[in-house]
Amino acid sequence: MTVLRIALAELRQHPRRVVAVVVSIVLAVGYLVASVTVLAGTTTALERGVIERTAGTDVVVTLRAMDPRAQAALAHRVAAVPGVASADLSYLSRGSVSGSSEWVQQQSVPANAKLRWTDLTAGRWPAGPDDIALGATTARQLNLRLGDRVTVHDTTSSVTLTVTGLVRESGSLLSGLAQRSFVAPSYYTGAPSIRTSLQTEILVVGDGSVAAARLAAEVTAVAGDNRVETSTSFGRRKMSEATGGVFVLHLMLLVFGAIALLVGAIMIVNTFVVLVAQRRRQIGLLRALGAGRWQILRALLAEAAAIGVAGAVLGTGAGIGLAAVVAAALDGPLTVPVGQVSALAAVGVAVTLAAVLVPARQAMRVAPLDALRPVADRPAERRFARLRAAAAALLGCIGLAGIAWGSGERPYALLFTVGGAFVAAVALLSASGIIVPALLRGVGRALRRGRPTVRLAHLNVVRNPGRTAATAAALMLAVGLVVTLQVGAASMTATAERNLSEQFPIDVTVSVFGGALPERTIRDVAGVAGVAEVAALPSARVRAGLRGRTTDVVVLSPGPDALALVPVPVPPLRNTVLADPYLLADTGVRDGTRVTLTGPSGSVTVPVRAHDLAPADAMVVGPDVMRALDARAPAGTLWARTRPDADITALRSQLRAVVAPITGAEVGGGLSAKAGYREFLEKLLTVTLMLLGVAVLIALIGVGNTLGLSVLERARESALLRALGLQGRQLRWMLAIEATLLSLAGTVLGTAAGVLFGYLGTRALSDEVNFRTVVFSVSPPRLLTVAAVALAAGVLASVLPGRRAARAAPIEALTD
Q1: How far is CA 357 from CA 262, 361, 370, 473, 536, in A?
Q2: What digits encode the pLDDT tens for the residues 383-402?
Q3: CB of 51 within 8 A of CB of 242?
Q4: Contacts by 408-411 with C-beta closer than 8 Å and gap 24+?
Q5: Which CATH architecture has domain 507-669?
Q6: For site-directed labelling of 528, which of 279, 328, 541, 576 has its Cα 20 to 30 A away?
Q7: Highest mean pLDDT among 54-58, 554-558, 770-774
């Protein structure tokens, strides 16, 4: 107990020594807690979006295709089953908004108010077949308000509806990618026509007298060959069909959490190594007075446990607070997974205890008289260095193998790539004790003729590889994380822009298929705020022979001015026809197949190629082919390019006003889809920046902490130099030069590693989301800025330790 009391007294008397350790634990645990909490909130929001229609039910009956009257009759039979309180038909479909290429999801409002999973924010629920309620996000994207009229086309008919209400939509990282609307059940069953539902269920609510599983069995007896599931089973099945994006997000947050844990663990290990090295003489004295090895170990573990518990508790609170900020920024739910948060707090304590084992084991193996010596055991240090080099080589091989395995089209390729990169990063950090001194020895050749202070600083950083590697590794982590995020974000943004431009090459289209646009349309569209350039294209309706059947299609013929608006290369159109990929897929036509097109002026037979430049159910041809098909084809389509800073909502509104008077005119293009993906990427980058910034903060604190503790460790050495005539100003310069050299090594290695891992992350994520083209983007000015900041941070971190060392009286330091 005496040794334990001494350990706790050490914490009370020297709190500054452990502040940085506590801060590292707080930040590492806080990061992990924030990551799992943000993920839990996003998953909760996604679950609500997927199963919100059935969240209040006990049993769900998924109906096969049948007559609506038969569906209604079945719903009545289900309602008569003992234990059933209500059985409501629920319809789900999709429709396109007239005057644009926007699609909205339509779902019927349940008759049972308990099944209305969301609340009205304005207006009222739809009551008749001509009413519609929009989600608040959807209404904002479509620029619609209460009382506005909107025409929706489904697979069988078109109907003009009145916006009667706005409803609240759940916010999350994935919100805004699906646009929603609500209609009355009579929209599907009333006159004048019966509209097609893509998905129809009977939502069964029990009266509480029968368990859900038993109720499902009773309903199955009257449901025929329709699928009957409990609400829980239905939700689990739907979630398994919709979790692809969450898997990527989950993996990213776990990777960043692992990075934070790695950074925190290295900082904690480095700090304890320096602290134990600094207390070698104290430990040696305790051993000489009779303290056993296990008593020393228990004392160090007690210190680590106290530090770990304090850091884990504070970190848990900080992580939940950060997650609350992220949830507020994304307008999403705050869901705290208590079990995972508790486990992460325990992990923080366990990592702290594990971090002290390495220096504690070294302290236990040192004899009392050896510990009282002023210098450490160099042979032991060399043995440890060789062991760490072997471990680094093994980890490096494993990491490279994982990266290579994830490069192919295999299951869980992203997991292998990211895992391999993580292991390779650990290997690089483990090898820093070899790489950093070797790099600094090369730098020393240029410093041989420098001043004595410069030469002494260089000798100090190369004669203790362990201490040098610990300090440089901290800065290498900070720089590597920043550069990885910087390169990854820039490359992922450029990759997304390139692939979106390939998939949606034209920002805005205005079309009257089979007719001519009024001459003033070009002028009106060009005058819309945010439109940069406009070009008119001849269009005609022709007959196409596709795999033995003839289909009516629209052909467009862009001239040089129209092709100049396309941001990606376009194949030559002289002897090729570009077709909508979905049109070819539906008709079973392969790339390169020769098709015959017949128009008013004649016929041509040319090879066809799938390309996203062609609108839905249309083809793009060259001017020669267009003249052969229809020599008098009118300008029936406009292509427009928008400015990067365009207000998309206002632009949509003005375009709708322009085309409203034109019968049959439709606004399309990829601007809306691009905007949705950009919004998602911006949200994702916001989250990663907020979370990864914490890991960078951990590393920067580790730089200052390791430099400060290394100065404290060398207090006797500095005092001896002062006693031999080194002035205080020269001592401060020496420490500043050491910090500069260490910062330079850490910055160079961190930048190189960050560029590599940024590229690997971009390639892995691009493969996961099926991007066809990967764009690698590096900004040299930004890299130089990061390097300058890192060097400045390293030098500034040496200021306070240098001042303390210079102010210490040589006699007092030598007698410590």
Answers
A1: 16, 6, 20, 20, 74
A2: 666 777 787 888 888 888 88
A3: no
A4: 409/767
A5: Beta Barrel (2.40)
A6: 541
A7: 554-558
